[in-house]
Structure formats: C-alpha cells, structure tokens
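Try this one yourself first.
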C-alpha cells in the first residue's frame, strides 16, 4: 500500500530576522501545522514560504537538514528546526532534492496562500510552482543496454547496465547516486543532490538534452 504524501516546509516569521527560517515536516496540510506553531512563545504567526510534497517527506526532511548543516553551523539551536539561512537559499536546496524524486511537487506561497496565476483578471486553479518530470530511463532516449556513456565532470566511461542503471568498475549504480559519489569535491553543490541525466553524455550529447529534444519532437 502506497504511503500517503506529506510535506516538508519552509516557514518564515515577521518577528525573526530575514535570514531565519523553520524547516520541518508534516503529514497534514502545512497551513494546519503553521497554525499549531502559533503560540505564546512566538510574537507573530508563522508564514508559509514554500512546501515540497512527496511520499518520502520523512527522509527528505532529514536530507535537507543535513544539506544545510554541511554548509556551516547554521542551526540556531542544534536540537531545533530553525536555521540561519535565507528562505531563497533554502528553496534552492528543496529544488535540488526534488530533482531526484519521482513525485516531488514544490509550491510557493504568498500571504499563506499558494500562488495563483492571473490572466486577464481571471483567477485560474492553483498550480504548483515546480512539478518534476518522471525519473529518467534510457528507454526514453533510445539508448541500448551496453552503450557507453561519459561522466562529464571527470571524463570517465561507464556502460548502460539496465533501463535505469550503469556499470562502472564492476559495480552497478543509478545515475544520481553515481554523480553524488564521484563528483569532484570542488564541483559539488550545497545539497549533494544531483539530476543524474545532466552529467552524462551519449555520443557527445548530454542525456537530459537528448530527452528534451525527443520530448519536444513528440509534442
């Protein structure tokens, strides 16, 4: 039975500094959670900045906390979910994590409401700010098993082992974990999350570019 999706959220508070945020998780809608946090310990109510909806919200929250901790000692208190980081940067880390999830939906908020696009003074149904494509598979771009790929950051060669795995030095990897393992230290991003198809080429073309080209031709 599939697990019900939950949320990882970024909350701000007018009574905090501009670079203080709360990053936590909730199995219920985040507006319910933000109201629960409105108590006498906080002068003003929390405001929802953004949410990431996914079935893996428990794991994702821990990974985001760890990613921020790697930047420097940004926790305001070590046992709390408050961080000395601008919400814009926290959102970039959310986006990095969302890239490697199949079901991630990131939604931006304004005045505690999901952002609703306006066209010709008409309000349309709320749309998530970011909704990610299905996870990359080699069959999407007609790359056969056994084909040779190049890992761009280091130039090493790997071979396609299955529809979503590669082989390198006798070991099997999925694309994104391979990037996280073998990315040179000086090229790593803050979150440690990578969209694998952006870092490999097949016949000198980036996998993600091949996918985009094929999808464009299909439309």
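Now uncover the answer:
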């Amino acid at each position: 039975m599939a697990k019900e999706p939950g949320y990882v959220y970024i909350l701000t508070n007018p009574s905090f500094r501009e670079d203080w945020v709360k990053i936590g998780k909730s199995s219920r809608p985040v507006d319910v959670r933000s109201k629960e946090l409105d108590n006498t310990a906080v002068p003003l109510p929390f405001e929802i900045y953004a949410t990431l909806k996914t079935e893996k919200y428990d794991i994702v929250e821990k990974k985001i906390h760890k990613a921020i901790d790697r930047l420097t000692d940004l926790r305001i208190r070590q046992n709390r979910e408050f961080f000395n980081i601008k919400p814009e940067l926290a959102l970039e880390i959310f986006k990095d994590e969302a890239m490697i999830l199949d079901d991630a939906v990131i939604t931006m908020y304004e005045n505690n409401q999901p952002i609703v696009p306006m066209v010709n003074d008409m309000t349309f149904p709320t749309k998530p700010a970011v909704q990610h494509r299905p996870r990359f598979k080699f069959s999407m771009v007609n790359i056969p098993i056994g084909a040779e790929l190049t890992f761009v950051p280091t130039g090493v060669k790997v071979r396609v082992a299955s529809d979503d795995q590669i082989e390198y030095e006798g070991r099997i990897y999925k694309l994104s974990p391979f990037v996280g393992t073998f990315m040179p230290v000086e090229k790593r991003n803050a979150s440690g999350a990578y969209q694998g198809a952006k870092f490999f080429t097949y016949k000198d073309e980036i996998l993600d570019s091949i996918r985009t080209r094929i999808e464009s031709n299909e439309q």
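Discussion: The longest helix spans residues 57-71. The longest strand covers residues 47-54.
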